[in-house]
Design brief:
Two copies of one chain form a homodimer.
Chain A: E1 3-8, H1 16-31, E2 35-40, H2 46-57, H3 63-87, E3 92-95, E4 102-104, E5 113-116, H4 118-127, E6 130-134, E7 137-139, E8 145-147, H5 152-164, E9 168-173, E10 194-196, H6 197-205, H7 213-222, E11 226-230, E12 238-241, H8 245-248, E13 254-270, H9 275-285, E14 293-295, E15 302-310, H10 314-323, H11 325-328, E16 332-345, H12 355-365, E17 370-376, E18 379-385, H13 389-399
Parallel strand pairs in A: 1-2, 1-9, 2-6, 3-6, 9-11, 10-12
Antiparallel strand pairs in A: 4-5, 7-8, 11-12, 13-15, 13-16, 14-15, 16-18, 17-18
Helix pairs in contact in A: 2-3, 5-7, 6-7, 12-13
């Protein structure tokens, strides 16, 4: 049994006309003799409409009830789409989270998929040619409805593909695929034919919106081939898959950036054991994501501690640390909102040195000052003044010849 | 464990303000220490909105998908109401058809309840003080969502009350209870304190809208005490319950009428065996509900056959019978749209003669001509010219002193 999984977002199913277009996408693999699992989101705007009802009803809506409430969005889009498809003579049915079943933990609003029962899905695929599955939702052990959090339909699709061992999981989106960098930032940006899971994860964590990060983790874990492609054309998009030799021969696959950052410095912190924990534990407790951290060399028993947080969390971060001023024992707290992160990403870096230094040189040639640096096996990130973001992205894109599809020299 | 079941319709839950009023009704038995099962309909207008979406999507919407679609209406009202209640500190949760579970057959759109699992509901009632259950919906064996047909929430409430052996099933509505007759037709109409199941069934089958007929059948079968009462006051309404002696001492409990009737006559039908089947089988096949039937005494081997059908089915009835004109062998088909049925109903009739003749005399005194008569153990129905409906209802109401609460003389 050849199985294709296809996922369409809220914009793609927002009205009858759009659903008719989606139907054409579904009929292609169906007519080629594949069984198709179509994963749908709620019609655009519906989830927000329901959430605002919840806010009207309660200052602090019960999360389990909120999940039961918003899950109706996908229930509606799936029932309607199945009607449409059935009218074309396709043997199909809608499948809700509890019917599949997509079993999750009971963390309402941000549940994690625990298990998808292959047996039941396979049985349904024997009876029906197309299953129209509600994305974003599942059920916990007691059969209560859960949701996977925003963008969870991507994860639903990948998890279903993993469960039934689908040939491919196609994620339809409003862009043609994954690009070497943001085309709005750099007109030379090129669509990638292929990208490794780890690279995609780094791109996603830097704010590339094309795939939800958890869906990529899932795809990597279960080795699901994901095809990110456009709802508006039949052109192939980008395959997200396991690292292979051809990828390793590419030094850098993409340039990502994140303007949503702020830099905070604690001046003249006492350099003594435990001080890092004193600073960062209370931030972690408030779920503030501290990213780059630099501790200057100590001088007279004092050091400066610099780190980045999402810009939206700056005020809270400052408030927390000012309360702890005497406990931590620093002299001054400064912050800088005008910073951004620019990263070069590529699995090819693992086996090649000199990538970081080539990046630094290219930025220096354009007089872009680097405020902080952090590196991982497959990523080099520079914090820079945010007015240089576009210049830095273009410079690095050019430096690694990404417009051409660069290969190891 | 004392359990109260309460059912509220779509108008009662149509917005936040209305739901707050419903909450007060729920908090009353809750504060008295009862466990409460609240059965809700979809917010007014929502079911029709969803059905019109279905019609837009498909000329002939798949019934199973339509059920999954419209069941979201109750899912939304229940989730919101549970949020509201939870905010008041009440231990509560919403319960959908598949979660209760309310097991039905798979006649989508008009499913019948097969079984409600008492064990699971009782376990939930141990954990929660109030269960907010979605009315109108259930699930079939394969866990697909079903709906019970219009007004099915009444049946859900009664069935749940039967399953958990509730002390009472309160059906909240926009009228204060069940009346001796339609108060819009007769200002002397009096609210009944009590009515027997069989009487309520006859009233409902004559178009009294206060309770869905299947819910009354269910209540009778499982001996559930139903309390029909007003959403807008705290006054007691009408108890629908088993026949008892006090009821039998009442000759007539109510006067019902049905203006939605038409009379059809086949003139000069050959009076031979099988002719009734020839006429009525094809009508039954098309689910046309033939009610009163009269066959005149035969003369020269010919008879006239007169019967009533719902007015909406007249055209189809005529079409069917005209096609069969030569097969049946009648001379002429006439019809009369200007007729209505008026009935006197009461379990007390069983043990008392003279009720019918008293009714005929009262109508005759007012010069109301009776076109057809049919009687059952607890009902006498007269077909009359529909312009006399109001007069007939008032005359009969007066004749049996219903404004006073009549007793056997």
């Amino acid at each position: 049994m050849n199985i294709v999984v296809q996922k369409f977002g809220g914009t793609s199913v927002r009205n009858l006309e759009c659903q008719r277009q989606v139907m054409q996408k579904v009929l292609r693999p169906y007519r080629e003799g594949n069984k198709v699992i179509v994963v749908l989101s709620a019609m655009a705007g519906e989830t927000n409409r329901l959430l605002s009802l919840a806010k009207e009803w309660s200052d602090n809506p019960d999360p389990a009830e909120a999940d039961s409430l918003v899950s109706t969005g996908e229930q509606i889009s799936c029932a309607l789409f199945a009607m449409l498809l059935k009218q074309q003579g396709v043997k199909c049915r809608s499948v809700l989270g509890f019917q599949a079943p997509v079993k999750t933990d009971c963390a309402y609003g941000k549940a994690r998929i625990v298990d998808i029962d292959e047996t039941k899905l396979k049985a349904m695929l024997h009876e029906y040619d197309v299953l129209v599955v509600a994305g974003f939702q599942g059920c916990d052990e007691s059969l209560r409805i859960t949701t996977l959090g925003r963008g969870g339909s991507d994860t639903s699709a990948v998890a279903l593909a993993a469960a039934v061992k689908a040939d491919v999981c196609e994620i339809y989106t409003d862009v043609p695929g994954v690009f070497t960098t943001d085309p709005n930032m750099c007109s030379d940006a090129r669509k990638l034919d292929k990208i490794a899971y780890d690279e995609m994860l780094e791109m996603a964590s830097m704010g590339a919106k094309v795939l939800q990060i958890r869906s990529v983790e899932f795809a990597k874990k279960y080795n699901v081939t994901v095809h990110v492609r456009s709802t508006f054309s039949d052109e192939p998009g980008t395959i997200v898959t396991q690292e292979d030799e051809s990828m390793e021969s590419v030094l850098v696959s993409g340039i990502a950036y994140d303007k949503d950052q702020a830099q905070i410095t604690l001046v003249h912190v006492k350099d003594q054991p435990g001080v890092s924990a004193q600073i960062f534990s209370p931030l972690a407790d408030q779920k503030i994501l501290v990213d780059m951290i630099i501790q200057n060399p100590s001088k007279d028993g004092l050091t400066d501690m610099t780190f980045t947080v999402p810009r939206a969390d700056v005020d809270q971060t400052i408030k927390i640390l000012e309360k702890l001023k005497y406990e931590i024992g620093y002299e001054e707290l400064t912050h800088n909102l005008n910073v951004s992160k620019v990263s070069i990403i590529g699995v090819g870096m693992r086996n090649h040195s000199g990538v970081a230094s080539r990046a630094f040189r290219a930025l220096a040639d354009e007089n872009v000052n680097i405020l902080m640096i952090s590196t991982s096996e497959i990523k080099v990130t520079c914090l820079i003044d945010d007015k240089y973001t576009e210049l830095a992205v273009r410079t690095l894109h050019k430096a690694f010849s990404l417009e051409e599809g660069n290969h190891t020299e």
